[in-house]
Amino acid sequence: MFSVCYNHDMDVGQIFKEVSKVDKFSYKKVAGITALSASLSDFKYKKHYHQEYAIGVTLRGIQHYYLDGSLQLSYPKGVMLFNPEQPHDGMAHDESGLDYMMLYIDPQLLLDASHKKDIVLFREPVVYDDQLGQEVLSLASAIFNEKDEALCSELLLSLTDSLIQTNPSEVQKDITLIRKAKEMLHSDLGNVLKLDEISKELNLSKFQFIRMFKSHTGITPYQYFLTCKIERAKELLDKNRDIYATVAECDFVDLTHLNKHFKKIYGITAYEYMLQLN
Question: Sorting pLDDT into bands at 50, 70 and 90, what band is 19?
Answer without folding.
Answer: very low
